[in-house]
């Protein structure tokens, strides 16, 4: 016998994870008791609190029929509840012993149980777990009592906020439908009636209502199945009693009993009738039943069209077309309630919903609403399990990189998701603001995925801070945010034309951003009448009377209507009359009352009726904001947790405040003397009007003092709990109401420092006005007596304030602030620091002249006197001083210099770095002088943060001004190494930018520069330096255009940049990028173009003029507007001198020379001489450049030489140079130059009347222009050379057919100075069963669907499981067969499901509503109807009317984006039977079903084949007598099939190369034909020359070149054909000595042909590293060739796919061979997507493929593996996902030895 302190334990009655029950004796009085001990010890504080709460509720409802609670014991290890033991046992135990109750006993028990339950309800408690187990009876005394209040709630209506998961509390076998979470309504006392009905059913039948024990089936039954009558199981149950039980079990709460009065009245009537006779006569039930509790209306009313619009918007977002939706309307109109519908809408796509609310009192906290939304997303993600958390963590780290630390600093809650992070790199204020904006935008975008779309709702935007509005603009304009629905709500009656929201929307509108606007209007009289009837259960006609009055008073405002109904009820103007058992009101009395005029007055009047302590508490809560935490409220209120909870609970009961966590129940003040200080539950006011009403009760003259008290209390608590950093923005605004009243002085100085630090944080967030307020408050906090003594603090605050004013656009106030700063500055260094700030801000706003003045003045204050306009002597002197300081030191030595420590030197370094960009634009000699001095400063004082900038500028000067690019490159590399050593990403990016823009291309491959510029651009964006990022993007765009990168890619990147909000701040740069875009659109032949021409004189800065001039020059030249091109070339030539060092200098020289050559033939003689001089000048310049970097500039140089030779009449020279230019352009990958060279060669040959050769060059030009993406240019060239299209070559005629479908207008592209542009528009209790049910659902679905391959049975199983999962009564499966849809299976609850044999056309079937099915099939989206019989346009449908259809759920079945059919589900018992969770379940199950249907189809076809095979085997068996012969034949057949599979795979791989081979053959064969024809003409000319005895040398040389070309292209074609034949041979061949290296080379060539000819071409670089020592191997070469080709093809595909991602590296393969001495290794490595670890074991499985449908057979690797295994070798794979994959083939050394012969 066990003992506990003071108790003897006799027997254990029950045990679970939550609690254990013992029958015991209390020793002090020998009282028999029941001990209920917690399942865990005191460490589980929550469980202890729950037990104490249960004790409190039990004490609250104690009385007759309730098990008495004797006490709460605190044992040493855990708490225990002491219950009376009256010798009872549970009714469930009684049933187990004796079976069902007789009717008389049942009625006796039922009346007493109902009375006890009514007693509980009268005390405002919902039990939530009524069942036979919790009803205790003493069989001897027949005493009966209810027990177990662990799940009870002390509220009249339990409402779970929509952003929390629905909680399933209770025991599922007895749970009301609304408790399951599958119906969209709250839980009230009527849920206990349903459980009571289930209990009564069990007492009468000894069976549960629904016999299944499976959670999912039980859930389905409660929602969808009609319960059986108790008489069906126990015929002795009277019909009338069965009717009472079934009424209790009604699905809709309104159809159950509404009071225990009515229930007891009917039960007692049964008792009386039974006493009179043996039978129980029929009588109408429920006559005495009337609802006596006031029930406020729930849900939306009159918003069907708005919900439909919201649903459509989300559907578009889920499809990848994200958008902005703005909802407007006055306060209380239902904007937030409408958006809450998103929780239903998003479930079908497993989408996220995140909400944030802007607070009128907390506008100083940057991104407050966004932080709320991110906190919701973090909690949702963490609650979805480790797998989802890991996935999101990885995605965020991929998207943010090093900036993950910025996110954690801004939103500390994200630390739980991404882990601890190092502090972010500090940046200047503007860059820091931009960086944070970008980080938050990318974070939200990371949550918005195709698999999980995101709906982001920002409420009350009229109170949004500027940082939040800027982020909203960023998200709204970013086209990459395809799966993000932005929803904003604002009160259009509470913001003015000058509010920040107005400006933000105007900026979006100006930028061309569109959005959908939804304005909510007041409800009509009918909707108000429905709300009245819902609350009072009166008839519609009578309800209309009261509704008319309420509608008049409220104007149809939904929140006002609800508040007015509650107000009337609380004033006893709307009351329940117990005598008449109905709700009564007196309209005359109501009208005579002084009702509040509006909702605000209504809320004030309602709050005045609250207890004083609750009013005081709500006033404090109103100071905290709309949303507040219990801990902060307790601290600010200045009371204990218990006192705070008691005051707050009244507000909860009155539904003025709503909980945001289920733990709120632990704050119930009747829970005993619990002090829940460790529970920080969040709450929010039910509406902002409630908060405003509470705030209005604070007298105006006391508000500052109240805020100050709140702020100081929160500050002290935050310091004590070390949470100041994350709470500071919520604390300091309170102190700002009266900072002068704070004391003592030490506290004021402490708070001044805190305001300074917090203001800097606000400034870096971009909330400049908030920063200004914080800095101003910090200034006031410095005690007047200490102002002189605290000069440094005042100076720092004033400096920060001035900068923030400037950044906020308060220029006059900032100018005054700078004057104050200069007056306050006491040292030259302080004055210089002010000037440095002014220089930085001026540079930021493109005021370059002002910036230089400020910077030079600041340098003079620091002892560095630089002239504004230095002469050559000053520059030479500074250069000599620098050379002396360098003293022959290598650049690597500069890397080892100590860090700069002298403050003035640091400031000087920052100053020179700040004014270097303005100097480049306006004073380049000053830039040279200042750069030399900056480098010397670092040599003298050590390296500073800005020394990398000094070194790279020095490299620029050496390269661009002193023509020493090699030395310049050394300093550029030094700059990057130093920035890396200093771990400064921003300086790294600036070094990258300057190095790649001005230095590297003169001696190094310019493609390296493209990679550097791309990386610099990414870092600059991440770092928030928008200005330099814009310049970097401009340089990068022009560089990529010069290299001939695909135009469509350039357009996409251009649009992405233009869509960034900050690009609009730099109008000069934006204009240049728009001109760039227009030129590219013209080249593509686009129909929609901006109407814009760009006069160069309108641009402000020379560099922008140079870029704009170049793009106009290229545009005119390529579109054959040659005179305009020449004019722009000459005009922009002078501008080029202002941008030394840029790559575009050479591009300009190139097009300048080409333009001169183009206009040369029609020029005058004098003009021709000028043009020749221009061409010679540009040729000489390009020749020097090509000598240093031939890869970059030889294509330019050679083509200019060719054009020069052409205009001079040097035909042989021109011909040779054209060929060399084409070859050089191809070698360098300059697609555009290749196209131009081929075009000009075509023109050259046409001028010489050589049409065959011209045609050959023309097709090459067209191909190159097409690869480039210049469809408009293709059209122009084709039209111009149309005679060649129709006269020569089938290839050219194919181009003619291509162009017929383009729709390009030649008239738009010709005949004007600028193209004519057009514009067009374009079974035990549990807290939550949700997880159990989800797991059960998925497990059952997996077993029932995935395991069934027999199609008819699969269809039937699918309907069954879908009905069960959703609570449907009826289900239909429709699938597509050929071109029509057929009903494959249908089922109904109770009769099961069965396949239709034969199947029936859907159009001829009466199994479903055709209107609904056709709508779903046409839209491809799901349809959810709460009540089809009342919703248009379905209510009049004949099927709906005939079958009384109510709830409908119809979902399409999609697989690989193909529509396979649909699932149609009905529940006609109740409305709203299906909700968002059911949509989600059907969405997941239909996806699994689609796969299973496809598998079943395959299995069906396999079965047909199998039956055919069996028939054949039977025939063979009858014919053959020898089993051995049969097996032999089967073996031979198997071998044949295997060979066929191998052949088919080989042919499949060959087919994938066919297009490439065909294309590659056309070009050399055309050249062979054309050069041959030309050679015949030359022979004839040669014959004439000989006859005339002229010199034949030039003709012989040209003939020799033609013949060599014929040979070259013939060999090229032969090589292609031979490789193709070797791969295509069907015979397996004999083993022979084979060169592995040769096989690799052949395979590489063949694959490259195919890759280049794809449309679009795949530019995949293949590097080969072949070991010459690899010996020959004895094998069948065709087999190994097949293996190599398969590996190469897979690698090319993977590398190319990854390259399509933004910022991805160029696709590249490495193929190598190696002889280890014992084996031959062949490796194929790509830099593609890699192979996920989960699929590596399946790679060599037949028919397994990772490619999309239609792009892979799944046999290649399997067959390759078998080939290598047959050779005794091995094949393995190594991979890192997202980085690379490497396949290794290892052949044994035995293959290198000759095989032994017979």
UniProtKB/TrEMBL annotation:
Residues 1556-1791 form the Histidine kinase domain. Residues 7-283 form the Protein kinase domain. SUPFAM superfamilies: ATPase domain of HSP90 chaperone/DNA topoisomerase II/histidine kinase, GAF domain-like, Homodimeric domain of signal transducing histidine kinase, P-loop containing nucleoside triphosphate hydrolases, Protein kinase-like (PK-like). It comes from Archangium lansingense. This is histidine kinase. Keywords: Phosphoprotein. The keyword Phosphoprotein applies. InterPro entries: AAA_16, GAF, GAF-like_dom_sf, HATPase_C_sf, HATPase_dom, His_kinase_dom, HisK_dim/P_dom, HisK_dim/P_sf. It is an enzyme of class 2 (transferase). Its EC number is 2.7.13.3. It catalyses: ATP + protein L-histidine = ADP + protein N-phospho-L-histidine.
């Amino acid at each position: 016998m066990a003992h506990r302190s003071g108790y003897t334990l006799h027997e254990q009655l029950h045990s679970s994870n939550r609690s254990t029950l013992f029958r015991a004796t209390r020793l002090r009085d020998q009282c028999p008791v029941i001990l209920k001990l917690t399942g865990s010890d005191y460490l589980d504080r929550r469980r202890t609190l729950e037990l104490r709460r249960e004790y409190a509720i039990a004490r609250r409802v104690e009385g007759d029929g309730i098990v008495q609670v004797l006490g709460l014991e605190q044992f040493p290890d855990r708490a225990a509840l002491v219950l009376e033991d009256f010798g009872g046992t549970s009714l469930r135990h009684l049933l187990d012993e004796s079976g069902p109750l007789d009717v008389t006993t049942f009625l006796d028990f039922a009346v007493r149980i109902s009375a006890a339950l009514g007693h509980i309800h009268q005390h405002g408690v919902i039990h939530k777990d009524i069942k036979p187990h919790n009803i205790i009876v003493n069989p001897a005394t027949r005493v009966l009592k209810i027990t177990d209040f662990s799940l009870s709630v002390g509220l009249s209506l339990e409402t779970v906020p929509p952003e929390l998961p629905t909680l399933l509390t209770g025991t599922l076998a007895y749970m009301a439908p609304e408790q399951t979470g599958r119906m969209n309504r709250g839980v009230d006392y009527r849920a206990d009636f349903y459980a009571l009905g289930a209990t009564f059913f069990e007492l009468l039948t000894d069976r549960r209502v629904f016999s299944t024990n499976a959670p999912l089936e039980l859930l389905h039954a409660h929602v969808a199945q009609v319960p059986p009558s108790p008489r069906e199981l126990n015929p002795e149950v009277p019909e009338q009693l069965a009717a009472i039980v079934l009424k209790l079990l009604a699905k809709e709460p309104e159809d159950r009993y509404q009071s225990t009065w009515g229930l007891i009245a009917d039960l007692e009537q049964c008792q009386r009738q039974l006493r009179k006779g043996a039978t129980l006569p029929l009588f109408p039930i429920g006559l005495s039943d009337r609802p006596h509790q006031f029930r406020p209306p729930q849900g939306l009313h009159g918003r069907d069209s708005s919900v439909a619009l919201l649903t459509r918007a989300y559907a578009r977002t889920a499809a990848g077309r994200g958008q902005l939706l703005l909802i407007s309307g006055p306060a209380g109109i239902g904007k937030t309630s409408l958006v809450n519908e998103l929780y239903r809408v998003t479930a079908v796509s497993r989408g996220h919903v995140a909400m944030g609310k802007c607070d009128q009192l907390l506008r100083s906290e940057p991104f407050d609403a966004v932080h709320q939304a991110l906190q919701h997303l973090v909690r949702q993600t963490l609650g979805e399990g480790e797998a989802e958390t890991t996935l999101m963590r990885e995605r965020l780290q991929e998207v943010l990189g090093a900036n993950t630390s910025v996110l954690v600093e801004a939103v500390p809650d994200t630390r739980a998701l991404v882990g601890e992070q190092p502090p972010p790199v500090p940046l200047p204020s503007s860059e820091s603001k931009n960086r944070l904006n970008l980080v938050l935008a990318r974070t939200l975008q990371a949550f918005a995925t195709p698999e999980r779309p995101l709906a982001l709702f920002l409420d009350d935007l009229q109170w949004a801070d500027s940082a939040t509005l800027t982020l909203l603009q960023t998200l709204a304009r970013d086209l990459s945010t395809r799966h993000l629905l932005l929803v904003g709500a604002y009160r259009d009656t509470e913001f003015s034309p000058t509010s920040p929201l107005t400006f933000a929307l105007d900026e979006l509108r100006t930028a061309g951003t569109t959005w959908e606007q939804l304005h909510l209007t007041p409800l009509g009289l009918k909707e108000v009448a429905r709300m009245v009837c819902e609350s009072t259960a009166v008839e519609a006609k009578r309800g209309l009377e009261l509704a008319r009055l309420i509608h008049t008073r409220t104007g149809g405002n939904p929140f006002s209507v609800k508040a007015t109904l509650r107000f009337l009820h609380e004033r006893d103007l709307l009351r329940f009359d117990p005598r008449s058992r109905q709700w009564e009101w007196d309209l005359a009395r109501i009208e005579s009352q002084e009702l509040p005029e509006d909702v605000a007055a209504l809320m004030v009047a309602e709050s005045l009726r609250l207890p004083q302590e609750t009013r005081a508490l709500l006033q404090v809560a109103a100071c905290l904001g709309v949303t507040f935490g219990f801990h902060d409220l307790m601290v600010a209120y200045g009371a204990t947790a218990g006192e705070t909870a008691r005051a707050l609970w009244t507000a909860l009961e009155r539904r003025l405040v709503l909980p945001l966590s289920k733990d709120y129940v632990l704050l119930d003040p009747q829970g005993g003397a619990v002090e829940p200080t460790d529970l920080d539950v969040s709450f929010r006011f039910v509406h902002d009007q409630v908060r405003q009403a509470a705030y209005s009760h604070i007298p105006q003259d006391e508000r500052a003092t109240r805020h100050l008290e709140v702020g100081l209390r929160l500050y002290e608590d935050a310091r004590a709990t070390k949470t100041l950093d994350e709470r500071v923005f919520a604390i300091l605004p309170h102190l700002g109401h009266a900072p002068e009243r704070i004391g003592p002085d030490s506290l004021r100085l402490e708070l001044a420092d805190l305001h300074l630090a917090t203001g800097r944080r606000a400034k870096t967030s971009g909330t400049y006005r908030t920063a200004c307020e914080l800095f101003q408050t910090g200034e006031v906090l410095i005690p007047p007596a200490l102002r002189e003594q605290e000069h440094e603090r005042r100076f720092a605050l004033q400096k920060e304030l001035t900068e923030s004013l400037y950044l906020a656009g308060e220029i006059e106030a900032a100018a005054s602030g700078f004057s104050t700063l200069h007056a306050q500055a006491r040292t030259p260094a302080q004055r210089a620091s002010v000037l440095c700030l002014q220089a930085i801000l001026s540079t930021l706003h493109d005021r370059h002249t002002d910036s230089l003045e400020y910077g030079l003045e600041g340098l003079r204050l620091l002892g560095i006197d630089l002239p504004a306009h230095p002469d050559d002597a000053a520059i030479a002197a500074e250069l000599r001083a620098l050379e002396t300081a360098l003293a022959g030191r290598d650049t690597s030595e500069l890397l080892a210099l100590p860090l700069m420590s002298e403050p003035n030197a640091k400031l000087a370094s920052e100053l020179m770095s700040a004014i270097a960009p303005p100097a480049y634009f306006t004073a380049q000699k000053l830039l040279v002088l200042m750069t030399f001095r900056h480098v010397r400063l670092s040599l003298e004082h050590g390296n500073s943060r800005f020394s990398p900038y000094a070194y790279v500028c020095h490299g620029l000067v050496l390269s661009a001004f002193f023509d020493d690019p090699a030395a310049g490159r050394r300093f550029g590399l030094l700059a990057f190494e130093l920035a890396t050593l200093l771990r400064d990403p921003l300086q790294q990016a600036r070094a990258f930018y300057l190095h790649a823009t001005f230095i590297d291309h003169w001696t190094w491959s310019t493609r390296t520069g493209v990679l550097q510029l791309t990386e610099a651009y990414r870092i600059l964006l991440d770092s928030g330096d928008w200005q330099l990022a814009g310049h970097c993007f401009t340089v990068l765009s022009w560089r990529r255009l010069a290299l001939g990168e695909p135009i469509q890619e350039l357009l996409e990147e251009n649009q992405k940049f233009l869509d960034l909000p900050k690009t609009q701040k730099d109008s000069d740069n934006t204009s240049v990028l728009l001109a760039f875009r227009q030129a590219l659109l013209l080249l593509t032949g686009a129909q929609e173009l901006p109407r814009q021409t760009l006069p160069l004189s309108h641009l402000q800065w020379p560099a922008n003029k140079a870029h704009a001039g170049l793009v106009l020059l290229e545009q005119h030249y390529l579109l054959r507007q040659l005179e305009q091109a020449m004019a722009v070339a000459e005009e922009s030539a002078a501008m080029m001198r202002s941008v030394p060092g840029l790559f575009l200098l050479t591009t300009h020289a190139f097009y300048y020379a080409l333009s001169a050559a183009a206009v040369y033939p029609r020029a005058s003689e004098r003009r021709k001489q000028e043009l020749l001089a221009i061409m010679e000048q540009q040729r000489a310049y390009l020749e020097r450049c090509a000598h240093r970097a031939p890869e970059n500039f030889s294509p330019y140089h050679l083509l200019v030489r060719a054009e020069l030779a052409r205009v001079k009449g040097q035909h042989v020279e021109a011909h040779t140079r054209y060929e060399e230019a084409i070859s050089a352009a191809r070698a360098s990958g300059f697609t555009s130059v290749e196209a131009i060279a081929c075009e000009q060669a075509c023109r050259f040959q046409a001028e010489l009347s050589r049409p065959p050769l011209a045609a050959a060059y023309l097709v090459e030009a067209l191909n190159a222009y097409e690869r480039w993406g210049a469809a408009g240019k293709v059209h122009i060239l084709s039209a111009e050379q149309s005679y060649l299209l129709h006269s020569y070559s089938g290839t050219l005629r194919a181009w003619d057919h291509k162009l017929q479908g383009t729709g390009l207008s030649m008239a738009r592209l010709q005949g004007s100075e600028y193209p004519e542009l057009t514009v067009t528009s374009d079974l035990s209790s549990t807290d939550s069963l949700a997880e159990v049910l989800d797991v059960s659902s998925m497990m059952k679905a997996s077993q029932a669907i995935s395991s069934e391959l027999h199609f008819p049975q699969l269809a039937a199983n699918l309907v069954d499981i879908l009905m069960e999962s959703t609570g449907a009564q009826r289900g239909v499966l429709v699938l597509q067969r050929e071109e029509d849809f057929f009903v494959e299976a249908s089922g109904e609850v109770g009769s099961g499901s069965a396949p239709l044999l034969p199947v029936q056309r859907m159009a001829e079937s009466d199994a479903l509503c055709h209107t609904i099915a056709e709508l779903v099939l046409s839209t491809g989206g799901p349809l959810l109807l709460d009540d089809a019989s009342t919703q248009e346009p379905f209510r009049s449908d004949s099927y709906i009317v005939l079958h009384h259809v109510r709830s409908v759920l119809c979902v399409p079945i999609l697989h690989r984006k193909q529509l396979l059919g649909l699932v149609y589900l009905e529940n006609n018992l109740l409305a709203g039977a299906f909700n968002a969770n059911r949509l989600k379940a059907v969405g997941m199950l239909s996806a699994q079903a689609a796969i299973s249907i496809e598998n079943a189809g395959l299995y069906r076809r396999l079965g047909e084949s199998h039956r055919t095979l069996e028939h054949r085997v039977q025939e063979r068996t009858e014919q053959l007598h020898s089993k051995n012969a049969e097996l032999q034949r089967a073996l031979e057949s198997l071998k044949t099939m295997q060979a066929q599979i191998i052949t088919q795979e080989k042919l499949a791989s060959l087919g994938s190369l066919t297009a490439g081979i065909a294309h590659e053959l056309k070009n050399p064969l055309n050249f062979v034909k054309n050069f041959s024809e030309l050679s015949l003409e030359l022979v004839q000319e040669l014959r004439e020359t000989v006859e005339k005895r002229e010199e034949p040398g030039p003709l012989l040389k040209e003939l020799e070149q033609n013949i060599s070309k014929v040979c070259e292209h013939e060999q090229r074609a032969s090589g292609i054909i031979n490789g193709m034949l070797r791969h295509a041979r069907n015979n397996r061949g004999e083993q022979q000595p084979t060169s592995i290296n040769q096989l690799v080379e052949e395979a590489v060539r063949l694959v490259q042909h195919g890759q280049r000819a794809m449309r679009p071409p795949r530019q995949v670089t293949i590097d080969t590293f072949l070991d010459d020592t690899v010996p020959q191997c004895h094998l069948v070469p065709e087999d190994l060739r097949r293996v190599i080709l398969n590996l190469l093809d897979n690698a090319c595909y993977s590398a190319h796919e990854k390259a399509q991602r933004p910022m991805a590296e160029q696709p590249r393969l490495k193929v190598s061979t190696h002889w280890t001495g014992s084996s031959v290794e062949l490796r194929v490595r790509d830099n593609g997507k890699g192979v996920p670890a989960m699929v590596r074991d399946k790679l060599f499985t037949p028919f397994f493929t990772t490619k999309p449908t239609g792009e892979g057979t799944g046999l290649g690797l399997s067959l390759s593996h078998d080939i290598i295994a047959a050779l005794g070798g091995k094949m393995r794979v190594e991979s890192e996902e997202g980085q690379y994959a490497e396949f290794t083939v290892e052949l044994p050394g035995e293959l290198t030895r000759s095989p032994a012969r017979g």
